[in-house]
Amino acid sequence: MARRRTSGNPGPERSPPGLERRLLRAWRWFVLGGLLGPAMVAAVIALAGHDAGTAEAHKRQLLAWFALAGWTAVYWLAVLAVLAGAWVVRIMKGPERRADALPLPQRDRLRA
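RE: above sequence
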């Protein structure tokens, strides 16, 4: 089933901006969350393990540091992938383009 054209333009239909625009406009919040979230968790880890002198406490603190580094890396990879995808969608939609404003030739008149 062919899609009906909503405009009289001969070129491709322009899609309205959607989720990709909201994601690209909110990138600052993603960066802020990616910086402040791990920083707060790092502060808790550092303060919680400050007075623990046993080897077991040091082992748990080191595990928490590695878990924090892993989750931070996963977060940043996911954010970069989603923002790159949103950028590609925005580029692929692009602005509306028209070849020219000349009227198309009428084949029916030529045959008669």
